[in-house]
Specification:
Belongs to the class-II pyridine nucleotide-disulfide oxidoreductase family. The chain is of the alpha/beta class and about 500 residues long. The chain is built from 14 helices and 27 strands. It has an 8-stranded mixed sheet, covered by helices on one side. Bound molecules: flavin-adenine dinucleotide (FAD). Flavin-adenine dinucleotide binds next to helix 9, strand 10 and helix 14.
């Protein structure tokens, strides 16, 4: 039995929502993964009379495709979609059976009207929490448009393919055999990358907002809900709705919820925001702001949005180490997300740069997958919590190097080592390894705005107790500000403060 009793019971309930028959075409061999895949599809068929199975020869073995009766949809799973991809499998079954995907009608129409042949392949790992979004978006596209196909490929099952394509980060997507993109991508982002983004004039033609929020993380979402509940005309422009929470696995300190996961929390935020008719302009990046009669925010696609007040909530991103080799080998051995990319380094030697909580957590995580992990810390002592350090030092395959400065990440077409200097002796050393995880904290996403609003020397926007910046009508919230601590609940609180500050400002200034 490949599914445990509890999951089977849940699955049986979901499968009752199927609206028609689905044909699984299964390509199996005599290997262990094929045996487990056959067990999985047999269990699925035993749970719903709507699921039929046919044996077939598909381009990859083991794999299976999910089809309507008499019509291939192009949705294929190569490997076994368990782990984080289990939801992708369930959604594919429901959507192929006829259940409408939970996607804006506008986007669905856009996908249906696309002309041409698009064959997507996404390489994933089953422990990657960024991958299901991409897999599910590509599956939806494949289900809605007969010219689009998508195969999800589990890197652990198709190791040779992953090695030959030199894939060192997941998800990595190929379109018609050519690299298309890597990392988390929403459906809108994929469509925008294919040249289907809303054009600038469509955005510039919008009426002015009362409150325009730049950034769609917890701070922006909270600000939007507070503003809309005051009856204000509210818009959010965000490069990626959800922000850092999309990259977060387990969350245990979102008070009143004992445990949740990033993407789940983002889905709730989105649902809550949509409840109030807030205009969410996703996959759009702001590049300039200017105060005239109204405040104007210019986007990278050239559109200009106007608003009486603006709340900046652009959050933060991973800090780069800035040594030679980092940029060259990004996704070729240099990685930032251990949960996502760790499995690609199974049995290999890796380094983690940074000995704070995130670095040490990453090293502990990676030690369970990689052959050996070297932690490089600049300071004479690790900065991580004592409990994490204790766990780290108990692991047999971890070496901790303190008081060292990373000098270079070396390689030819991919990472083959790291050079560092012992800060005590000044001696330089080189270690041969295949992966480097950079875990040295975050920087605020304010490069574009600190010439306009007042920031600290660290690039954090300076706000007062109302969330106001030095420019009247411009407020800021969350990780992009000089708030002492950066957490989800703190960002949400400051988003609420900024929205109430903006409301007060509008009352006084019309
Ligand atoms: C791996 C990880 C794990 C974490 N775990 C936890 C945890 O367990 N508990 C906890 O409380 N906190 C955790 N945090 C911290 C928490 O995620 C942040 O404090 C919180 O997300 C900050 O919210 P924010 O809205 O200020 O910014 P962000 O979440 O960074 O959101 C910023 C938003 O602004 C957008 N944006 C940026 N620049 C632009 C631009 N120029 N134009 C338009 N949009 C733009 C982004 O796309 C995004 O939508 C974690 C962070 C990370 C990275």
């Amino acid at each position: 039995m490949i599914l445990d009793a509890e999951i089977k019971a849940q699955l049986a309930q979901y499968l009752q929502l199927m609206e028609g028959d689905v044909l699984l075409k299964v390509s199996a061999g005599s290997d262990d993964v094929s045996r487990d895949m056959l067990a999985l599809v047999d269990e699925l068929a035993s749970l719903s009379p709507n699921i039929k199975i046919e044996h077939a020869q598909l381009p990859r073995t083991p794999s299976f495709s999910v089809n309507r009766i008499g019509e291939d949809t192009g949705v294929t799973f190569a490997g076994i979609p368990l782990g984080h991809e289990f939801t992708s499998l369930v959604l594919a079954l429901l959507q192929v059976s006829g259940r409408a995907p939970k996607v804006d009608q506008k986007l669905m129409d856009q996908i249906k009207s696309m002309k041409g042949e698009y064959h997507f392949e996404s390489y994933i790992s089953l422990s990657c929490h960024n991958c299901p979004d991409v897999v599910q978006a590509l599956n939806v596209m494949s289900i809605l448009n007969p010219g689009i196909t998508h195969t999800m490929i589990d890197g652990a099952t198709f190791k040779e393919e992953v090695e030959s394509k030199e894939i060192m980060a997941v998800p990595t997507v190929f379109l018609n055999g050519e690299p298309f993109g890597s990392g988390r991508m929403t459906l809108e982002e994929i469509l925008a990358k294919m040249g289907n983004a809303p054009d600038a004039s469509e955005l510039s033609d919008k009426d002015p907002f009362d409150v325009l929020i730049v950034g769609g993380g917890p701070a922006g979402a909270s600000a939007a809900i507070y503003a809309a509940r005051k009856g204000l005309r509210t818009g959010i422009v965000a490069e990626r709705f959800g922000g850092q929470v999309m990259d977060t696995l387990g969350i245990e300190n979102f008070i009143s919820v004992k445990y949740t996961e990033g993407p789940k929390l983002v889905a709730s935020l989105e649902e809550h925001v949509k409840e109030y008719g807030i205009d969410v302009m996703n996959s759009q990046r702001a590049k300039r702001m200017e105060k005239k009669d109204l405040i104007e925010v210019q986007l990278e696609n050239g559109a200009v949005l106007k608003s009486k007040t603006v709340i900046l909530s652009t959050g933060a991103r991973w800090r780069n180490i800035g040594v030679p080799g980092e940029a060259e080998f990004k996704n070729k051995g240099v990685a930032y997300c251990p949960h996502c990319d760790g499995p690609l380094f199974e049995g290999k030697h890796v380094a983690v740069i940074g000995g704070g909580n995130s670095g040490v957590e990453a090293a502990i995580d990676l030690a369970g997958i990689a052959k050996h992990v070297t932690v490089l810390e600049f300071m004479p002592e690790l900065k991580a919590d004592a409990v994490l350090q204790e766990r780290l030092y108990s692991l047999p395959n971890v070496t901790v190097l303190k008081n060292v400065q990373t000098k270079e990440i070396t390689g030819t077409d991919k990472v083959d080592g790291i050079s560092y200097m012992d800060r005590g002796t000044g001696e330089e050393h080189h270690i041969e390894l295949q992966g480097v995880f950079v875990q040295i904290g975050l920087v605020p996403n304010t490069d574009w705005i600190c010439e306009t609003v007042e920031c600290t020397r660290f690039g954090e926007i300076i706000v007062d107790k109302h969330g106001a910046t030095n420019i009247p009508g411009v407020f800021a919230a969350g990780d992009c500000t000089d708030s002492a601590y950066k957490q989800i609940i703190i960002s949400m609180g400051s988003g609420a403060t900024a929205a109430l500050g903006a409301f007060d400002y509008l009352i006084r200034n019309g």
